[in-house]
Structures are given as structure tokens and as C-alpha cells.
Amino acid sequence: MKLKPASINRVALMVVLASIIQPAISQEKHAFTVQQAVEYAKKNSVQVKNMLIDVKLQQEVNRQVTANAYPQLSGRIGATYNPNIAVQSFPDFISLATYGVLQKEGVTDGSGRPITMPNDIGLLQAQFGTKYIASAGLDLSQILFDGQVFVGLQSRKTIIEWASKNVEVTEELIKANVHKVYYQLVVSKTQIGLLDANIERLTKLQFETNEMFKNGFAEKLDVDKIEVQVANLQTEKKRVLNAIESGNLGLKLLMGMPMKDELVLSDSTLSDSQIKEGVLEASTYNYNDRKEVQYAELGKKLNEYNIKRYKLSQVPTASLSGSLSKNAQRNKFDFFGKGDWYTFSNISLNISVPIFKGFYTRSKIDEAKLTLQKTEYEISNLKLTIDNQVQTAVVNFKTAIEAMDYQQRNRKLAEEVFEQTKKKFQAGLGSNTEINAAQTDLKTAETNYINALYDAIIARVDYLKAIGKL
Fold this sequence. Notes:
Helix content is 64%, strand content 14%. By secondary structure, it is of the alpha+beta class. Helix 6 packs antiparallel against helix 7 (220-255) and helix 6 (156-214) runs antiparallel to helix 11.
């Protein structure tokens, strides 16, 4: 079949449209606040996903522990073929019985002497059994009491809480990192805004200086210097934009977001008042607000269960078992035909009393106690660490706020100085050197403000994390 030119054009158009539409369909756009970014990370982070799988794995282990307390029922069926049935030797009871009867009746031999039993009766050989044996049955067992099993049942809920709390600890760490990277990008966008304002300011000054040069009131060198400054600012802007792009990719990785998706930060601005809001108002904090403490306390509880488990291993265990079977014996393999199947059954009560295990159990109890003591020491040290983190975070946050406020005032002052210097230069009362120095000071003040702003954000996140309120 030969396609017409018009048909070829339509096919080509469809291919082009498909290549454009497909990426648009596969790519998603996400506009997230910092809280939404945290929630997305909790659902999609590989670390959190693996921790959630650990919780499910522990649930399966719990089911296995529970299964030990349930009745255990098993069925069996089997068949045996005996090509050569074993021969058994036993006393000749037939001759023995015969002589006994003859002696009792007083029978005599041909000489008239009473018949007496010989000293050696002899042995008989016979085969007992059949060529084919078949059996089928059910076996049932039930634990009546086993201290270790019952402690395992008691600890199931705590083990799940412990595994779940480990997920929360991981989520808290991811949450803090998302906050830091997210706000770093927000601050970088603030930096872009300041750079744009500087570029706009210098571009305007460049135009005005160029006009002054045309009218003979400025030198060509003055115009060139300002042009160099504009180029430097544009270069720095590109560097910051590249850093934002890299940070955006890093945030996606942290959140578990596909790299092809678009991430837009809804919290595009962050004021000084937002950073200060609600922080350092509370003078006290609670250790139990920290997920790490909650996790450690659950670990301590599990260690206590471990001691209890080993102690109860010294207590007798009791179980009940029963069996019901059908048995058939044939000289031919005809079990599915006529013939008898014989039933036999039994019920057993089993009590196991541990007497001596070479001090193994005593050693396991002492080992569990030492592990518990280590956990208690670790909890005490964790609380000391939290005290240190909180006090350090308070100092760092206060210092960061003071630096941020100072740098904010310094930035505004540098901006005012630049504007006054520009007016003097335009009025012919100032030099190009003065305006270059003012621009350099303004750029330095803005850089210091951006750094102070980011330090304050990090200090806020660290403080809220330290008191468990992030």
C-alpha cells in the first residue's frame, strides 16, 4: 500500500504531537508549602517506606508468636511394603502345651513310664505381619502453659509500638532536613530578589551615567565600571539560580519525588517576624515530646519483658496431645477394596519440669538484666543530650536573631548610603570611587543579611526539633 503525501503529513504530525503530549502527561507539578512537602516525604521517602515494611515484618513475627498458642493439628497418611517379613523365633509353646496335657492326663509311653517334659523344648520360627500396611490419622496438640509463649503474647503490642516509633524517629529526622532545605531555597529566592533590585538599580545608574558621559559630565571609565558591576551581579544571579536548581533536585531526592516532576515552593517568602514567631516563649520542655525518648522507653519495656521471659522459662510447662488413627494390613495392595481398618487413639498430658541446664538460664537472666541497665543508662544520657541540645539551640537561636536584626538594619543603612552617594554623584558632588564603594558595601550587607537569615532559620528548626515541637 502506498501512502499519499497528505497521509504522510498527518502521520508525521501525530508523531510530533505524541512526543510533546507524552512528557506533559507523565510529568506532574507539585506546589507545596513546607508542611505539604513534609507530608509528601513521609509517604514517599524510601527510608520511611523501609521502616513501614519493618513494622509489617514485625506484625508477621507477632502472628508466628500467636500461632504457638493455638492448637496444632496435623494429618498423616502412609503405606509400607514389606518384601521380606522379619522371622521371629520363640519357644515351642505347642509342644510345651502338649506335654502339659499329657502329663496332666497321666499318659504313659510304650514302656509304661509316665511321659515327662524334655529339658529343651526348642524354638519355633514364624513371620508376623503382612506384606502391606497402611495408616491414616490426625494428631492434635495444645500448649496449656508455657511462660515464654505467654510473655511473647503479652509483648506483641509493645513490639509493634516500638517498631512504629522507629518510623516516627525517622520521619522527624526527614522533617527537620526538609525544613532546612526548603527554607534554604526560600532564602535563595530572597537573595535573587535582592540581586534583581541591585541589577535594576545599577542598570538605571548605568543609563544615567552614560547620559552624563554624553553631555560631558562623566568619564567613559565611570560607565565601564558600572557595567562591570552589573555583569558581576548577573553572574552571581546565575550562580544562585544554579544553586537553587541543585537544591531543588536535592529536596526532591529527600522527599522521594521523581526528578521529572516539577516542584514549586508555595512558601516563597519568609519574613523576620515569621522566624521569631512562637519560639522561645515556653521556658520548659518535656523529654517525652522527643520521639527518641519514646522509642528508648519502649525498648526498655521490651528488655523488661525479656527478663520476665527467661525467668518463666524455669517454670514447668504443660501441654495436651492426642492422636486418632486408622490402620489396615493386607497381603495384597487392596486397601481401597473391602477389608477392615482398625481404629486406635490416645490422649496424653505432658508436663516438662526444667531441673538443671548447666546455669544457662541463670546466665540469660543476668544478661537480660545487664542489657536493661545499659538501656537505662542510654536513656539518662539521651536526656542529658537533649538538655545540651535545647540549651545550645536557645543560645544559637538568640544569637542568630540578634545577628539577623543587626544585618537587616545594616542592609537598609547600606541601601540608604548608596542612594545618597548616587545623588551626590549625579549632582557632580561625588566621585565614581565613592559610588563603587557604596555599591560594594551594599552588596556585602545584603550577603551578610542573607547568611544571617538562613542561620536564623536553621537555628529555629534546630530549637523546635530539640524540644520536640517541630
